[in-house]
Each structure stands twice: as C-alpha cells, then as structure tokens.
Amino acid sequence: MPAALRVTLWNEYVHEQLVEQVRQIYPQGMHAVWAESLKRQLGNDVTIHTATLDEPEHGLTDEVLAQTDVLTWWGHAAHERVSDAVVDRVQKRVWQGMGLVALHSAHNSKIFKKLMGTSCMLRWREAAEKERVWIVNPSHPIVAGFTEECFELPNVEMYGEFFDIPTPDELFTISWFEGGEVFRSGCTWRRGKGKVVYFSPGHETFPIYYDPNIQRILAGCVRFAAPTGGTYHGEGRNIPAPLAPIEAEHVVDESLHRAK
C-alpha cells in the first residue's frame, strides 16, 4: 500500500485574527477549512499538518519540510515578514521534489516570486463581483472528474491581466469577471524536480474556500503536485575519469576543474 501523501498547509493567519469580517467566515482560520476538505476528499491517502507565520521559523523547520510532500501557501498582509532563510529552505525543497500550491494572493509571496523569477504582479479590484471559472484543459489531472465546462463564484476579488509570470507549462483554468477582465487563474510549472501550481480564487473576505468546486480543485492541485519521477540530481556532480568515455591520454588534470 503506498504511503499517505504528506501535506503541510501554510497560512499566514493574520486576517482571521485581526479582521472581524474574516474571523466570522473562517473562525479557525482558512487552513482549518482546507484541512477538513482535503481529509474528507482524500481520506487515508493524506496526512495533514498545518503551520502559520507566527510559529518559530513560521512552522517550516527543516524537519517539517523533510516530512512534507506538498506545501500549500496562502499569504497577503505579511509577505515581508516571511524570513528569507525560510524562503530559501522552501525553494530548495521544491527543487528536490516537494510540490508547492500557491493560493490567491500568494502570487506576491517571496517564495512564489523567487521560484518564478518575475514580479508576479497583476491588476485587481475588490468589488464583490461574479467570477466565472472556465476549465480550459479538461484532460488535466487537477480537474479530473469535472463534467461541466465552467462554474461561477458569486462574490470575489477580481484578478486581471497582465499577470507578470513566466509562460505556464500548463493552464487548467481561465477566469472571467463581471467587469470584463480575464485572468490565467490556474497554472502549473516545473522547478527542479518539483511541481508548482498557482490557483487564484480565494479572497479572505468571501467564503470561497467552502465552495465545493474550489475544494475539488484544491484537492486536485495537491494530488498533482505530489513528488514523482526519479532521483534528483540538481547539484553539480563530478564524474570520475575512469567512467568517462574518453581515452586516458585525453584526461585533463581534474585539479583545474575543482570548485574555487
């Protein structure tokens, strides 16, 4: 029997403590809603750990990350409070194969921008307008099981193009808003051995993470981002001369190639 997928749900967990409107929607934090949803959908196939900004090392110690297959990330009000050392630690684990699922305003998080290498900025408007989420790649595993072509969210924050990200490896959703904007709302990339997913619906002042379609896609993101493939060789490796396919007289003094 395969081991359960080990998921760490990272939530900044600032709005829920400081803003009454958000606290009423998510009294135990958004991460509690994600945890319940993933456990209900994935059952014994997943183990859940949660971490928040104010924990030591933001709850993302070397030990925690070593026991994490997929890390979800939600942040908004306190991106700059995230330690650069922790960001570097997470980046290294993604290169090694850990999946990262960046949610909503995590587009502006240090870790997402570090992995993308761009500003990751966009246009936005908070006007409680309708969003229509179109499934543009019905064969993608993140949206497996969807029979409808789109679904609607009645009240959201608009995110619009231009979205300053590298061209995604894959798009699985595009969103349309009442104001006419469109947005690449579901994207994937590979970084090192790790898979990175961005999924935008999830503004804190609306109960978006209770929506069954959003919960289904979040579970799909987690499943998709799970580590796959062979051994990771992301660091330089010297191949000893006896194993190199060259004649002995052409072997160069290896001392000339040692790291300085």
Please give a handful of descriptors for the protein shown.
23% helix; 260 residues; 7 helices; globular; alpha/beta; Rossmann fold; single chain
Give structural notes:
- With about 260 residues, this protein is an alpha/beta fold.
- It has 7 helices and 9 strands, in the order E-H-H-H-E-H-E-H-E-H-E-E-E-E-E-H.
- A 9-stranded mixed beta sheet has the order 2-1-3-4-9-8-7-5-6.
- The protein is globular and about 65 Å long.
Number of strands: 9
Mean pLDDT: 93
Beta percentage is 25-35%
Give the termini distance in whole angstroms: 47 Å
Instruction: Specify the number of helices.
Output: 7
- Report strand order across the widest sheet: 2-1-3-4-9-8-7-5-6
| CATH homologous superfamily identity of the domain at 5-121 and 186-232 | Class I glutamine amidotransferase (GATase) domain
Helix content: 10-25%
Major sheet, described briefly?
9 strands, mixed
> What is the 3D shape?
globular
The third-level CATH topology of the domain at 5-121 and 186-232 is Rossmann fold
**Which class best fits the helix and strand makeup?**
alpha/beta
Poorly predicted ranges (pLDDT <50, ≥5 residues)? none
